[in-house]
Amino acid sequence: MSCAGDYEVILARTLTPRIMKVVKIAELKNRLSYYLRRVQRGESILVCDRERVIARIDRVDVGAPVPERDGEWLERLERRGVIRRGTGKLPRGWLARRPRVRADVVTALLREREEGR
Fold it and tell me: Do 71 and 47 contact (CB within 8 A), yes or no?
């Protein structure tokens, strides 16, 4: 499907035909909040890059379980050692025990840039 201009398309191949808004990346970036509100209301957005559809944004139910594909993907990452999933809740006060940084991180970063590191 190509993206020639700002328009809405009707997807008839689905069980219930629906209208999807087609938007280019620049327009989406400029009006992200507007389009996310449309998605919250149940609309779908097709995102285009250089006259080609590259993504679809749909509303997700808050309590929806992780789709099987995502679950399988997470399991694969865990087997490869890329991630380690938690097994329970974090203990109370865990966040309070984080190390305190007394340095000015921005100043240190700017100093490193000046020194060419």
Answer: no
Q: 48-57: which pairs have CB atoms within 8 A and are 24 or more residues apart?
A: 48/3, 48/22, 48/23, 48/24, 49/24, 49/25, 51/2, 51/3, 51/4, 52/1, 52/2, 52/3, 53/1, 53/2, 53/3, 53/22, 56/20
- Domain annotation for the chain: domains and CATH numbers: 7-57 (3.40.1620)
Beta strands in 25-97 (DSSP E): 44-49, 52-57
Q: Tell me: the pLDDT tens digits for 52-80?
A: 899 999 887 766 665 667 778 888 888 88
11-50 pLDDT, tens digit per residue, is 555 555 567 889 999 999 999 999 999 988 888 899 999 8
This prediction has a pTM of 0.46
